[in-house]
Each structure stands twice: as structure tokens, then as C-alpha cells.
Amino acid sequence: MNFESVLAGLPDAVIAVDGALHVVFWNAAAEELTGRSARRAQGRVLKEILPTGSSLVRRLTETLATGEHRSEADGVLETVDSRTVPVSIVTAPLFARDGTVEAAVGVVRDVSRIRQLEDEVRRGETLAAAGRMAVGVAHEIRNPLGAIRGAVQLLARELGDDPRWREYTDVLTKEVDRVNRIIESLLDLGRPVQLRRAPLNLHQLFERVALLHEGTARARGISFVRRYDPSLPPILGDEDRLLQLFHNLVANAMDAMKQGGRLTLATRVSMNALYGKMDVGTGQRSMVEAQVADEGTGIPADVRAKIFDPFFTTKERGLGLGLALCHRIVEEHQGAIQVESAEGRGTAVTCFLPIARA
Q: Which CATH superfamily is domain 3-110 in?
């Protein structure tokens, strides 16, 4: 058996170095994970390829120095395009005949999807707690709210058209309605949903959402740009829930563009290594990408990991429930949602949704 061929075919990245940290082996998975080809990597010092302080360089250096295994469950690896990928790392020494350490090998596993699933479980628990709380208090709050609203309407009728009093009664009515919307949003997060799945034309969904927002967008100096894949197959989903998803994403994108700009709606069949094919409960299914991209202010790096958390918001009057609901809708469809953002340059939110055929 050719053991080099076995290592070359492993799904995990396998990287071996000699005693001076020169790369002697770099399999196909390492190429895909780092974005660096084996031809360019082999023979070079690992510190020239990866940052000196990277997890893999540190662990291999320690293994060469001590002759001991090393492992790191929460390491990071920098790719050729400067992205950082969460990885787990295990290194082992390779001994010469005289017992000295002559080389070391590192096995690196991309744990991005695992981390995402862990985050989804945590968010799901928070959403469930919020839903239980909402169900518990909704009845107790709605009854007095209904009474307050009725009393305000009667008061407005008694006071007539005097603009001084009309202003106050309008504020009271709007605030009561706002509290009702908050309760509805909480209930929407917590109540179980029975999806009505059917083949859907993604472009038609986008066009319906764009049409509803077109007047507001024009007033704000925002123009819609379409980048649709004309050969896109139908997706499998619940029409009402997906419209709600895209409404929220487009509204968020417009809110981020205070100075106007282009709001891009894009679709394509996904070739993403992590999300291009996913198990939707009936086996692997190919996915499509539905992307909403803006040219707004972007999301600060220090809060990017929290944007799908319930009640987290960067808006002055935001509830912090819109993106949490978006995440839940995508999750209901056994899909995934990904956010890429650069401060001052905009944000792109990509939803991975299953196509209607396998």
C-alpha cells in the first residue's frame, strides 16, 4: 500500500516538516484549506508560508523541540486571502533510526461548521427561552394594552380635533401598537412553525420584496441591482417565511445605507465548500445562494459574532429580533446564513437554501 496516497486523500489537511521546518508534505486538503498549492509550499520554510505566531507553526515547532505530541482544539489558520479559519490541530514527531526527532507532522481539521452548529444550538436555546417568556406574559400584557388603546381612542374622540391633544393621543396609540409588535415578534420566535414547503422561484420572491421596498428606496437614493443566475433551479421552501426573511434582510440593508447607494440582489447555485451541499433530513441536497448586499456602513468586527443573537442590536430603536428571526427561518429550511462585512464598505448576507430537486 502506498501510504503517501492514503495521506494525500484524507479529508483533513496533513502537513509534514523536517527538522528545520521545511515543508516535505502538503496534501490536497491542505491546499483547499489554506489556498496554497503543494507545489509552492513544498521545500519552503513553514514560517514563510504561515504567520510565525500561527497555531500550526507553534505546535510543530514545539513537537520538533520536545519530541512530544501536541494538540489544540481552538486553533486558527490564516488562508492566502487573509481569512482566519477555526481549526483543531494535532501534531506528532517522526523519529530517525537513532531515536532523534527528524521531522513532524500536523493534522489540521476545519471546524467552522462545528462552531457554527454550536452557535446555532446556543441561539436556539435563547430563542426557545424568549418564546416561552413571551407566551407566558403575552396574555397578561395584551389585555391591559387593549384596554389602554380603547381608552385612548375614546379620549381622542372626546377631545375632538384640537391639535395639542391630538398629538398626545397619537403618541399613546403608536406606542401601544409598538409594544404589541414587540410581543408579536417574541411570539414569532417562540411558537412552533409548520412549514408549507413547495418548489419556488427565488427570483420572483426577490422581485416581490424589491417592489414593496422600491418607493422607500427611491426616496433614500438607493437603487436595486439584480445579479440573477438565469439557470437557477427552483428552491424548496415556505413562501411566506422566505418572503419574511428577505423583507428583513432588505430592510436592514436599506437602514445601513444612510447616504444611498446600490443594494444588490444576487443568486447562484452554490459551489461553497461548506454549504454547497447539505443534509436537509432526506440526504444531501444541493443548495443555492440568495444574497442581499449593501454599500452601507458595515458591521464592526467586534460585534459581528453577535448579530444573530436575540435582543442584540446596533440600532437606536432596534429590538434585536430581526436577524434572529432571519436565522431561525433559514434554520427551519435546513440551510445556512453567512455574513461578510467590511466597515465603511458594506455588508453581504448570503442565505444557502435547498433546491427542489436532489
A: PAS domain (3.30.450.20)
